[in-house]
Amino acid sequence: MNNVKDPVVVRFAPSPTGMLHVGNARTALFNWLFAKSTGGRFILRIEDTDCDRSTSEYTKMILDNIRWLGLSWDEGPGKGGDNGPYLQSERLVSYREKAEILIKEKKAYRCYCTQEELEIRKQEAVSQGKQPIYDGKCRNLTAEDIQKHDEKGSGYTVRFIVEPQELIVEDLIRGQVRFDLSLYGDFIIMKSNGYPSFHFAVALDDALMGVTHVIRGEDHLPNTPRHMLLFRSFGVITPQFGHLSMILGPDGQRLSKRHGVTSVDEYRQKGYPPQALVNYLALLGWSPGDGQELFSVEELINKFSLKGISKSASIFDPQKLDWVSSNYIHKEDPSDIAIHSIPFLQDAGIDYVDEDYVVKAMAVLKLSLITYSDVVQKGSFFWNKEYEFNDEAIEVLERCEVGKFIEVLLVNLKDWVEGSMPGEAVRNASLASGIKGKEIYHGIRAAITGMVSGPDLAGIVNTLGPERVQKRLKCVLQKFWMADKNES
Ligand code: GLU
Question: What's the fold here for domain 385-487?
Answer without folding.
Answer: Arc Repressor Mutant, subunit A (1.10.10)
